[in-house]
Amino acid sequence: EGALDIALKHAGVAKSDVSFKKVHLDFDDDLGKTIYDVEFHVGIKEYNYDIDPTTGAIYEFDVDIDD
Predict the structure, then answer these.
(1) What is the mean pLDDT of the chain?
(2) Beta strands in 1-67 (DSSP E)
(3) Do 5 and 14 meet the contact criterion of CB atoms below 8 Å apart?
(4) Residue 29 C-alpha from the chain's centroid
(5) CA 20 to 30 Å from 13, out of 40, 48, 55, 61?
(6) Is the pLDDT of residue 22 over 80?
(7) Please, which pLDDT band fits residue 21 given cuts at 50, 70 and 90?
(8) What is d(CA 63, CA 49) in angstroms, rounded to the nearest whole number?
(9) Which of 64, 63, 60, 62 is nearest to 28 (CA)?
């Protein structure tokens, strides 16, 4: 839940506005380390974040329109 909270705060989104969420640990080959892969949907937008599980640093994020 900590990784989700970091992503929501960064996106400026309230947890109550999220219609779908998925958070899991994954190994990122490019970074060479384990990250939290966070995905959530708000309206027609899909948010994706890669977050360091130790420091909470955001490595990468993007927002797409979910068709």
Answers:
(1) 94
(2) 20-28, 33-42, 45-51, 58-65
(3) no
(4) 17
(5) 55
(6) yes
(7) very high
(8) 9
(9) 60
C-alpha 28/C-alpha 46 separation (Å) is 20
Cα–Cα distance for residue pair 41/20, rounded to 1 Å: 5
**What is the distance between the alpha carbons of residues 67 and 31, in angstroms, rounded to a whole number?**
29
Q: What is the reported pLDDT for 26?
A: 94
CA-to-CA distance for 45 and 65, rounded, in angstroms? Answer: 5
Q: How far is CA 1 from CA 6, 10, 30, 39, in A?
A: 9, 14, 24, 12
